Please model this.
Amino acid sequence: MSLFPGKGLLVLSLLTLGGCTGSSDTVQMGGKSAPLFSLNGKVIDGYVSGATVWLDINGNGELDTFEPSAVSSAAGSYSLELTEQQRSCVNYASLIVDVPLGAIDEDTGPVTEAYQMVRPPRLEGVIPLADADIFTITPLTTVLADYLQADLNAVNNEPVSCDDLKNNATLRQQVKDKLLDALANTVRRYNLSTETIFSDYIDNNDQQTHTLALSIVKGLKAGYAYKAQLEAAYPDAVFSRVEFAQYKHFEPDVQPDFKYRDNWFRQVSVWLTSGFISEMVRMNDELSQELAVYSRRNVTSEPWGNGQLRSQWTGVEWDHNNQGSYLCSLVESVSIQQEETRYTLSNSGAEAFADTLDDCQPDSFSDGVERNFGVDYTENGVSFDSRFTVSLNDPSYTALADWVDLRGKAQQLQFSEMIAVFSALPYKFEDPVAEGLYTYWYKRRTDDTGDYRLLEYKGVINNEMEWYREVYQADGTYIKQCTIDGISWESCEN
Model:
């Protein structure tokens, strides 16, 4: 049985664009002439005519009477005419496209399934386009918008208007930072440059990107049709997200031999005030039928003393033994922030197996076999995070022995005890880690202080050291380099 019955999808709303071209006409407003500015672009799946494009000034995701709109014509072209006031919002408001039934896709003919596309922000030049460029709205810009909205939900659950962003420098910087992260994730996911993501791939005769866009649109249409009943099932949800995609587009660098590598999945997440739930369902190629629930996750979060307690239950399809169809796991995590450092202790309960997800119900950590110590910190604008995993056989496992089954224990346990243990860990990026202390450990350094991101990772699993860095380029792509000493670096392919 699906966790999310019915049909429903996320609509992206907190997004922006930028840039206007032309200013030759005037419009009468209250008896006075006000100049009109033109913002020109294209709606592309193939080129789409008959789609409604608008600037979502108030951020509510709906076309209001005071918001400029236009219908796309041949070759997907559109032109929005803006007043001076509307023009001031082009960097702080969404550009949204409704593609209705009957619109014409020049590749495939009349549109038989309605869907939406979105163009994400151009805050302070994050997206490297000149004002004179054509503002394309494509499946790839919509994926970027999806990433952005999901990240923004963590910092602001309310629609954000043009005025909100213009008048709130802190919020504006938050959105900019999230946009940069979303852009990096999109570039990484498809290994496409920023310029390609915002390009007219048809005019450029870029068949590879065009084929990718067609696959994405197939998922967008299915997702748009999945919207209404999802919202009905969770009317109090803070935010919802749904994506139909082939598995290779979810995690391109993970499990290259995964048996469902090219299969379609529906991935849904619903954020609630107390946590979130998610589900991944394997679908048929037509996206019309559920084949099997692949995984389900339920996360709750609650205050715990001066910190936060997070519990996560997961069931995932498993066919590596004869004990059951699903592998069931339970994790509890308690964390506290002190200035620019966050300490997190995670306990994993004993794994169990079940024939169905409804039977997949581990409920205790007292018989767990693994713990995780995490420290996140910032120094001179550079972010670091370190994780140390210990099992029953590791010398460090008995540290904080009373810190298990944590719900209801906030008054019994003191964070000072946990912080003292964590402070003794070799968590600094340059600290050496003794062999044999941990089942697995890693350290990651993310430096965004320069012109382009530099990410460095090192860690040990199964006694094997991995040490690499990603050197990002002007176009948003990166070069991966490996090392054995942190001094000499060369291509990881060598």
